[in-house]
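Researcher: Predict the fold of NYN domain-containing protein.
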Amino acid sequence: MNDDLAALGARIDRTNELLQRMLAEVAKTPSTHAIFVDAGYLYAAAGRLVAGTEDRRSFDLDTEGLIEALIDRARTIFADSRLLRVYWYDGARRRIHTAEQQAIAELPDVKVRLGNLNANNQQKGVDSLIRSDLESLARHRAISDAALLGGDEDLVSAVEAAQGYGARVHLWGIEAPEGRNQAEPLLWEVDSQRTFDLDFFKPYVSRRTALSYDATAAIRPTREDVRFVGAQVAAKWLAARGRESLAELLPGHPYLPGSVDQDLLVEAEGLLQYSLRGQADLRRVLRDGFWEHLQAQY
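Model: Structure tokens for NYN domain-containing protein follow.
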């Protein structure tokens, strides 16, 4: 009898030891998050909030700057987690990338997924793409948290699928001038909700005017000129804020906080006398020049 109890106790001890090892391994595994952006919702809601219209042709969206701002915000919210990537869902005729969608696809840590556009310019198949990606990533334990920027009720099934595999889904929304721009059933299903206001989107949305077109009609600066201006702005930024601010900024490379990125854009446009809105390649060179100068000083 005593021998049986001793053997049972030994087995329990071994089981507990194995369990503790497993828990220790789980604790070592870093959390991972991904950001899922329904571009149709983003353009409509941000356009109405900032420019007073949902018509994409009536305003410019600085997608690169906005994506970096979303990544920066996610870094704050999911402090002990790493970013897998940003998934950008949009529609296109015959699923052929537009120039803007191609520029977005070339950004680091961004994957563009395209549904179709029908004759009325309505997206088709985007919700199913979001569900497929959310479910697959959650099933393979590739993500622990998903930040979903969208509002369509059809996304409920995507949320439920991801949650079924243990992932937490956090709904991000855009402030509505009146009423709601996200379906209630979607709000009920998610694990948390967060709304971004006018101040968050204002730096990245600008209404198109005759003047804004004239601003881009000037002679396009060379990449070398833009890179040099980026370094100039970095030198000014560093002189004003000091090395402590630089130490805080460096871990975020290659991304810049939204406020810093917007200041860089405005300052550079003033020095160049040229609008960089919608110029994704030059915006990237500008940031490269900014970072290169800062890293050389550290």
